[in-house]
Amino acid sequence: MTLFKLSRHRKYVSDERTYAWFELAYTTVDVCAAVLFVIGSIMFFSEAWLTAGTWCFLVGSVCFALKPALRISREVRYMKNDDYEGLAKRFENEH
């Protein structure tokens, strides 16, 4: 079973609520990361704000790390729902 399969996304359009929540979370994290990086960049113009700016960059980086984690969690959820029985049958046939 391949992750990030386009046909799976089309199949789950009926699961609009779950897909919409994942997209909303992904976009929210993306915006937060961008805003934190802009704020951190502005803070670096003043030596008094260097530490706060560094923290903004760190939290923004964590947000950027969350983006692929959200995509992977969505794909794993879809993969489990899509072919759970088929995965079990393939496992039985191999052993």
Shape: elongated
Any low-confidence stretches, pLDDT <50, length ≥5? none
Helix share bin = over 70%
What is the number of beta strands? 0
As a whole number of angstroms, the C-alpha radius of gyration is 20 Å
Beta fraction of the residues?
under 5%
Order of helices and strands: HHH
Mean pLDDT: 79
- Summing up helix and strand content along with how strands pair, one would put the structural category as mainly alpha
Summarize the biggest pleated sheet: none
**How many DSSP H or I helices?**
3
From the N-terminal CA to the C-terminal CA, the straight-line distance is: 18 Å
Task: Please describe what this structure looks like.
The protein has 95 residues and is mostly helical. It has a domain at 18-82. The protein is 83% helix and 0% strand. It is built from 3 helices and no strands. α2 packs antiparallel against α3. It is elongated. The model has no long low-confidence stretch (mean pLDDT 79).
How is this structure best summarized?
The protein is mainly alpha-helical and 95 residues long.
Topology of this structure?
Elements: H1 6-11, H2 16-43, H3 50-94
Can you give keywords for this protein?
mainly alpha; single chain; elongated; 95 residues; 0% strand
